[in-house]
Structure formats: C-alpha cells, structure tokens
Amino acid sequence: AAAVEKRFGVRRIDRATLAAWRAEAGRTTHVLDVRTPEEYAAGHLPGSGSAPGGQLVQAIDRWVGTRGARLVLVDDGMTRAIMTAHWLLQLGWEAAVLDNPLAGQALETGGSEPDLPAAISPAEASLRLSEGAAAIVIGSSAAFRRAHPPGAVWSIRPRLDRLPAAVRGARQIVVFAENEAVGELAADDLSEMTGAETVLAAGGVAAWQAAGLPVAASPDDPPDSERIDFVFWNHDRHDGNQAAMRAYLQWELDLPGEVARDGLAGFRVAP
Questions:
Q1: Is 199 helix (H, G, I), strand (E, B) or coil?
Q2: Which of 9, 29, 137, 165 stands the most exposed, by the fewest C-beta atoms within 10 Å?
Q3: Which phi and psi (to 5°) does residue 173 adopt?
C-alpha cells in the first residue's frame, strides 16, 4: 500500500482540511467509509457513508451522484483506503485519504440507511387499491414476473416518465419497493410528476404476500426488451441467443466512440 500511495500520488488530508472542504460552497465532498458494512455499523465518523472499497470502484454511481465531487476515504487501517483511492484517481476522481480517521473521534453506530417517513400497512394499501389507486412495483423485473399485487405495473426509477397514462393520471398511487429508500425517492418523483397523492407500502410485495393478500404472476411481463435492470447471459434466453450476442459484441465495439462523443470521461490510467 505504501508503494502504491507513493507511485500514484495518493493524497492524505487531516481533519482541518476535511472541515474546510465540507464548508466550501459550490463543491460537493463525500466522506466514504471503505471498510466492511459491519465495521461501519460498529463505529463510524458522523456524516460518512458506508461504501466498501471494491464495490465503490466498480459501481461508484450507487454512492456518488455529483460529477467532479471530492471523495474522502475512511479506513482505520489505511490500506483499503489507499488501494481504493488509487483506482478512483485513475478513473478521474479527486480522491484523498483521511489520515488516522477514527483516532480520538466520537463515533456513531448503526447502518447507513436513511430514516424514512412512515409507510402505509399492507391492509391500508389493499384498501386504497380497492378504491381505485394505481400500484407500481419498483425493483427486480424477475421478482415482479413471479408475484405482484394484481393490476400493478413494474418500473424502475429512471423510467417513471414512461408509466402508462392510467397510472400517471391516477389520483392516488401506491408504491411497492424492494428497497424502501429507493421507493421513497420514487414516490417523491411521482408526486412531482403527476400531482397524485403517492404513498409507500411498508415492506413492499414481500409484506403484501406475508399478509395473505392476493398476488398475480406475469411470466412475459415486462417483456425481455424492457428489462434493462437485468443482464442476460446466453443461457438465460430461450431464443435469440445469436442475435443477442452479436448486439452485445457490437455494443463493446462501439463503446470507445460513444465515450469519446459523450465528452465526459476523465480517465487517468497510469502507465
């Protein structure tokens, strides 16, 4: 780790620098704890988020939604923070490591899931649906195919604007979500987009089923062409394997040109 830190110029900062960055107007600073979620829950810096290092590098958009943000990494052993930082630097991010981050600090315990507003019970959700409310399910398309409240429509948050007119025109919308934090965000989006009273069903479809309420299955809905939440390998398909593989290979061939046209890539790969 020391050799990597030196080779890639990984910067260490102190708490005074972090405080100044956090207070700076017009620039976002994320403090990300790259240890395991269990270590994070046992004690972490207030205001930091749990982002295990390997996952952070591979799927940074799960934690960081601001282009050009500063990323300050926390790890009591330093090694994981340094190794994560050197990959983030090559990906074009401004990443630094907080030196001796936990020593002498008042730590918080618990997970990083946000506190959510109260959601309605499955029984209340059932009553609202019987009175004409629309229902959408935010989550896995495969799980939706297996079971969902009758009449519900599947979606993911980026595609809420593509919901059927009957849903967008409803006076009330009930949101069922595998991840309630995502569901709450989707409910807020729908309220702004439609003006409908939008509520979250506590526990999602799993709680609905546990309450003994009816579910429907739809083996072909949503169709494969709409299931952008799912990566199809050839053995997952029943037909169209060759066309799917050709389309995938063409996507790979076209990717460098797409990145260049986008103009937003900032890789700094070290020799």
A1: strand
A2: 165
A3: -135, 130
Tokens of 99: 């030196």
Instruction: Note whether 201 and 162 are within 8 A (CB).
Output: no
> CA 51, 56, 61, 63: dihedral to nearest 10 degrees?
10
C-alpha to C-alpha distance for 139 and 203, rounded to whole angstroms: 12
Strand 172-177 versus strand 197-200 pairing type: parallel
**Residue-wise pLDDT tens digits, 101-112:** 998 888 999 876
Residue 87 has a CB neighbour count (10 Å cut-off) of 18
Distances (CA, A) of 246 to 17, 233, 241, 259: 50, 12, 9, 20
CB 64 within 8 A of CB 71: yes
CA 261 to chain centre: 26
Looking at residue 102, what DSSP letter applies?
Answer: S
Pairing of strands 172-177, 94-98: unpaired
pLDDT tens by residue, 161-198: 999 999 999 999 999 999 888 999 999 999 999 999 99
Q: Which two tokens stand for residue 220?
A: 């072909």
